[in-house]
Design a protein that fits this description.
This protein is of the alpha+beta class. It is built from seven helices and eleven strands.
């Protein structure tokens, strides 16, 4: 099931890719026919390169040193996983093809091809656009923000459904916060056998967590003035 409400302003593909990269804690590396998983081992340079800490006796380190300089010899994969448990929890995947070079005790990965896959499809991102983009300012705080909203303020999540078109709430069984960025909040609308996503836009972008708090209060104020949605009735209808 696709989006159930018109999509509001959101980050572009390059910014989304850099946000996935900034927030990811792990990555998979495929090089020289082998695939290795690394957790908490990478950092990101200002232009989107990836510095990777790997053991000097690893096959990846040896393959990187022996590979032809400047030729694409490896692929890095990052998964963007929703912090709140929902169906189809992977929101996007980012693939970087490129080559490694040694930087002291670490390996520097230089991308030559960047592909972002979201539910709407895959996008090939221009390298200059990718290098110039910056992560969403809320990217590294998003997981904590969403889990706090879901665990500590479920009443606020339900109140926000007053901003959702009534037809999008038909037979709903659960509503959960799926994503947040400087442009808005996305809710996952789940039904017994299907789901959809609804975007609630902020009146202006939020550049930090304090501004996000103000934007969320503005949404809740707007929701308080809207007609209540009979979620319990919809849930009962969907469970029959």
């Amino acid at each position: 099931m696709g989006d159930t409400q018109d999509w509001a302003a959101g980050p572009g593909a390059a910014e989304r890719a850099r946000s996935v990269l900034a927030a990811a804690w792990s990555c998979a590396v495929t090089a020289d026919g082998a695939r290795e998983e690394y957790v908490g081992a990478h950092t990101v340079t200002g232009d989107g390169g990836v510095l990777l800490d790997v053991p000097e006796d690893s096959a990846l380190f040896a393959a990187a040193l022996c590979a032809p300089r400047g030729e694409p010899t490896a692929v890095l994969e990052f998964a963007d996983v929703a912090p709140v448990p929902v169906r189809q929890r992977i929101r996007a995947r980012l693939w970087l093809a490129g080559w490694f070079s040694q930087r002291g005790a670490r390996l520097l990965f230089t991308p030559t091809r960047v592909v972002l896959r979201r539910p709407s499809g895959a996008v090939l991102i221009e390298l200059e656009e990718y290098a110039a983009a910056r992560p969403d300012p809320l990217a590294t705080a998003e997981a904590q923000l969403l889990t706090h909203l879901a665990d500590s303020h479920p009443d606020a999540v339900e109140r926000l459904t007053r901003l959702v078109r009534p037809e999008s709430l038909h037979a709903v069984t659960r509503v959960a916060p799926l994503a947040v960025d400087r442009h808005g909040l996305t809710l996952r609308i789940e039904r017994t056998r299907a789901h959809g996503d609804v975007r609630l836009a902020f009146h202006t972008p939020a550049d930090d967590v304090s501004q996000l708090t103000e934007r969320m209060h503005a949404l809740l104020t707007q929701a308080a003035a809207a007609c209540p949605r009979a979620l319990q009735r919809h849930r009962a209808d969907g469970d029959r």
